[in-house]
Amino acid sequence: MYSSVSGRTDGKITIDGGEGVGRITRKGLDQPVGSAAINSVPRSMIKEVLDDVCVSMNHSGGLSAVISVPEGIRIAKKTFNPRLGIENGISILGTTGIVEPMSERALIDTIRTELNMRKASGDDNILAVPGNYGKNFSEETEGMDSDLGVKCSNFIGETIDHAAKLGFRGFLLVGNLGKMVKLAGGIMNTHSRWADCRMEILSANSVSAGSDAGTAKKIMSCISTDDALDVLNEAGAMDKTMQEIMGKIAFHLNHRAGEKMQAECIVFSSKYGKLGETPGARELLERIKGQVR
Questions:
Q1: Please, what is the angle between helix 238-257 and helix 198-208, to 10°?
Q2: Which homologous superfamily does the CATH classification assign to the domain defined by 2-87?
């Protein structure tokens, strides 16, 4: 990355993007549509340096700085930028000016940015998918446009919180049982290092649904949720157990979302297909499909 600085005569300090720096094409991002994708904090830092140069050189005419990243267009293809409405280059980001390794906070910030963009585009309802399994299921089984889904990774609670803060009316989560079952226990970060409890939750809910202790014990020895579903299927208890699971998912999602945002969920398995959905999921799905893009 480098900058090209030239003098002005009107006393202004201007900052723009050159080769490899993206342009904003959609509302809801840090800068207006048409601007270079250089966020507020780096803009402020660049301006501060330019102001210091003007003072040190006793120059009152102002300066123009053009920031360029020669490999920016190639690098941007590996980022979320095109999806977010940033074209032909990378973003110059930053909130503190301190370089840190890629972190959970950076991923959450990316999710929030996409939610901001969706809201600014006029969407009232949002589809969230943890990853490609949810994305593919939404597209292939539910007939959704795959571009409608915001990838929330493991950060389901954080995604719900920001969607509610932005004023979305509806939040539909579509995901594989391997992650979604944790929601039935109120676990809103589904990464395994935070909590697992998949078999404990399935086992307990199988008992609530009428299964015997032997079935519950077999579930506890399973490694994957598909293995556990095999046990439930053999016992004739899969449907009733999933009804229990979906009821608890609905409770915890809506408790997190609060009273102003409807939260629904569709759960599937790569082996068994759709396993269940919360009561308002179908109606919310149709509302999302009907949103004008």
A1: 110
A2: CbiD-like (3.30.2110.10)
Indicate the pLDDT class of residue 7, thresholds 50, 70 and 90: very high
CA–CA separation, 10 and 15 (whole Å): 14
**Distance (Å, rounded) from C-alpha 212 to C-alpha 292?**
49
119-128 confidence digits (pLDDT tens): 988 999 999 9
Q: How far apart are CA 86 and CA 22, in angstroms?
A: 6
- What is the Cα–Cα distance from 215 to 233, expressed in whole angstroms? 10
pTM, rounded to two decimals: 0.71
Alpha helices in the chain (DSSP H): 40-56, 72-76, 81-84, 104-120, 132-140, 156-166, 177-180, 198-208, 213-220, 225-234, 238-257, 281-289
Q: Where in the chain is the domain with CATH 3.30.2110.10?
A: 2-87
The structure tokens 């050189």 sit at 57
